[in-house]
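User: Predict structure, ligand CU-O-CU linkage.
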Amino acid sequence: MNSVSRWIALTYSTLVLTATLVRAETHVFNWTTGWGTYNVDGTKERPVITCNGEWPWPDVTVNKGDRVEVYLNNGFDDRNTSLHFHGLFQNGTNQMDGPNMVVQCPIGPGDTFLYNFTVEDNVGTYWYHSHTAGQYQDGMRGTFVVQDKDDFPYDYDEDVVLQLGEWYHDVTDVLHHQFLSVYNPTGAEPIPQNLIMNNTRNNTWHVQPDTTYLLRLVNTGGFVSQYFWIEDHEMEVVEVDGVYTDRNTTNMIYITTAQRYSVLVHTKNSTDRNYAVMQKFDDTMLDKLPADLQLNTTNYMVYNADAELPDEDVVDELDFLDDFYLVPYNKVEALGDPDYRITVNVSMDNLINGINYAFFNNLTYVVPKVPTLMTALSAGEDAVNAEVYGSNTHSYVLGKDEIVEIVLNNLDSGTHPFHLHGHVFQTMVRDVAYDADTDVPHPYQEDDHPAFPEYPMLRDTIYVRPQSNFVIRFKADNPGVWFFHCHIEWHLTQGLAFVLIEDPQGIQERSSQQLTESSINACKSLGVPFEGNAAGNTDDYMNLKGENVQEKFIPSGFTAKGIVAMTFSCLAAVLGLVAIAVYGLMDLSNIEEKVINELDLDVDQVVAADSNTEDNESEPKRRINSD
Ligand code: C2O
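Assistant: Predicted complex:
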């Protein structure tokens, strides 16, 4: 290159740089958590988690390339917190990703954490939420839209966000204690009381005639999937989870928690009437149908404020779009054979303490003593060895740029939405549902599967059907520690998660991945080590003595159900009246009956299991009525 062309190149790159600098904005947010009382669904006041004393949390809109700085101040006096920007790749900024003990220390009461990152590779519809102890079900969440007007492939007139959700009348703390309890041996999830939209029930959306809306649907609920449709209006899907798609016309969307769909809706020319915007619970996910639960909720698309509000729109059939068949707008071809395959089986079972847990390959996720990212950063060459991350974090180490395949076999009879942090993945296979009453679970068969799509759908959250399976693939091109988990918050607390440590050396080498002052301070403040293996050992990373592990499996020779009844008896004896108060339960003998009924137990069998334990030296022998 001669000096003139070098000068031109230099000037050009300076110009480009200046142009980018001018366009990119920095958005600074100062958010403090707290509690307030709100009547969100119009039927009951309850405590919710506020942002700077207000609720709901702000909806955020940024442009592609912008910087975001969130100072999250923990204003609680009795609990930790954290924030996750769901779907953002956080390339080079893994410690801003949110999950406690995966990439950061929890933020203790009175502490501040700075989430500081640039939105480089993401466009479209996202959301943010606390990644701690079900706090987003108490309202700690908002939508997060990354605008990219110059490159958005379709025309529209107006951009509208509809945040879908569900609402409980009790705070998560209370539900959580009831849920993860010996008194709930089947792991029945608490059932929400209502569906909400934009943080209210029966939401009104004012529209103009003959206008094209880009409607961004975000499900910020923590449990149940929803059906969404608009009376007498078609929707054209153009984005899912931040991935633009070819247009796909449908009347109904099925959206799990954490998923997003952007649809184009063209309004009618006439304004003489209004239309129903419907949400419906996927009731197949509920263990019971409480008599007073409204499965459908009507919201209003209002063309004419003087005309009547519409009635509920009833449909004969839930004929919704199958997202498996969507095609990404960019036509990214299917990834080839994997370099690395992870096969996991999902199941749910009781451990010896009587509590119902969720498992991938018999491992229920237990937090390590050192956040996994901090182990990866401090382990030197040992970072490539999965063992240093602990046996109960269920960690896999991925090589740089490997094609990774996750085969997930759902041995459970429920539908589960799974989310991978740090990536979108291609959905290669998603099998049909296999009815638990008439069929057995069907694991994926490598030598007998449907043809892979040419341009598989890409997204960050995908559901698996009952007793079914899916296969997803992605390229390990984002060095970091990434959580993979069920996005049903109840199931995450039951341990339905594993961890991917992607290119650990690549993490160590990048300066932007080194711990920020804020990261280190969060740890120091709570006395959590920020170096060492999963057991906190900094001398010998291969020595995991003292690591956190899950409860034991039920010893052979005991039936699971018998043990549950036994454990329940012991615990009831130990906890006694306190438990009755804490769990709000009436009468211990009734509870025992309830457990027996729920598990469909043979009473003789329970008694037999109970007396078995008399011989078991290591088990406490007290009975409910023995004190
Ligand atoms: Cu919205 Cu770990 O997820």
